[in-house]
Design brief:
Beta-Lactamase; 334 residues; rod-shaped; 7 helices; 46% helix; alpha+beta
Length: 334
């Protein structure tokens, strides 16, 4: 009887030890895989973010080059108001995403036009363009931030998004403008030119770039049962979302992230987007005060962890059963 009790006690002790070893190995293996997947996820999406940012920057540069061609034409035809309008109209077909081109002149640059002269060649309700004089006391562009900035910096830049509704002849809506000062032959500021675009083209470009990246085999290698769901957004330097694939405005409330964006730094934060726990990767674009962000839902990233957890648990159960069978057989033999 004592031998049986001792044998059963020894068997129980071996089983407990074996289970403890298996559990420790299970936990260590799962933790190692968890941190490896977390690092892989961060590296993957920081790489995707970089590619998206580069593609978007290339698109923006193309928009700028087309606008520059129009502005250069204006600079070559400063001899009369009519020639300025003709210059603005000459290249309107270069980019269908541009809603209109304007030239906001210094006060009395053309004496007959008075203090405010801002011809605006813009799309009308049809497929054509029309010319509207938008400069006025109501629309005093001389006090506008973009005009003052262009006059001080003498450099081209993108304005912050704004809602335009000053002139009933021009379609109202949310715009952004590429701005450049134009100088006369003597180097004096003649006018500030701009190309107005609604933010719709930015959303369209984001969707196209996201689709291209999702179809890139190199960027999407080693899926490990993940859909690799993500989408891109664009923020201004104060954290305002100006482009979202569904037209939504996603606020960033994390103070550290807002500080990073204002200081043109990259970063990663966890946040809830549209009620879905997600991870946001963000970094500034080159030569423009915008930040690209990639939203990655956490649920998709957890799929490999769930799979590996189930595999490890299955191995642990099978291992425990095998050890129990071996020990029982030895006891029976003894």
């Amino acid at each position: 009887m004592k031998l049986i009790i001792r044998s059963e006690g020894k068997t129980c002790s071996i089983m407990i030890t074996a289970l403890a070893v298996i559990m420790i190995e299970l936990i260590v293996s799962f933790c190692a895989f968890y941190y490896a997947m977390k690092a892989e996820k961060d590296i993957r999406y920081m790489g995707v973010k970089k590619v998206i940012s580069e593609k978007l920057t290339k698109t923006v540069r193309g928009m700028e080059m087309n606008a520059m061609n129009v502005f250069d034409e204006v600079g070559k035809h400063l001899d009369s108001p009519e020639s300025v309008v003709a210059a603005l109209e000459s290249k309107t077909s270069l980019n269908p995403d541009v809603r209109g081109y304007f030239a906001a002149f210094e006060p009395a640059f053309f004496p007959e036009k008075g203090k405010w002269y801002e011809p605006y060649v813009h799309q009308d309700d049809s497929t054509g363009f029309k010319v509207t004089q938008v400069g006025s006391a109501r629309h005093d562009y001389l006090k506008s931030d973009w005009y003052i900035r262009a006059k001080k910096s003498s450099e081209s830049f993108w304005s912050d998004p704004y809602y335009y509704q000053d002139n009933p002849k021009v379609a109202s809506g949310l715009y952004c403008t590429f701005v450049k000062p134009v100088f006369d032959a003597e180097g004096r500021l003649a006018c500030v030119c701009g190309a107005d675009m609604t933010l719709a083209w930015l959303v369209t470009e984001l969707k196209r770039i996201d689709k291209d990246c999702k179809n890139d085999d190199l960027l999407n290698a080693h899926r490990m049962f993940r859909n690799l769901d993500y989408y891109s957004m664009i923020f201004t330097n104060d954290g305002t979302c100006i482009a979202h694939p569904e037209g939504k405005r996603i606020p960033i409330k994390d103070e550290g992230a807002l500080r990073d964006i204002a200081q043109k730094k990259s970063g990663v934060i966890d946040m809830t987007v549209n009620g879905i726990p997600s991870r946001l990767y963000y970094s500034p674009m080159e030569s423009i005060d915008w930040t690209v962000g990639i939203v990655v839902p956490n649920a998709d990233s957890r799929k490999p962890l769930i799979l590996v957890g189930l595999v490890l648990l299955t191995v642990a159960v099978i291992g425990t059963i095998v050890i129990w069978i071996i020990i029982r057989r030895k006891d029976e033999t003894a």
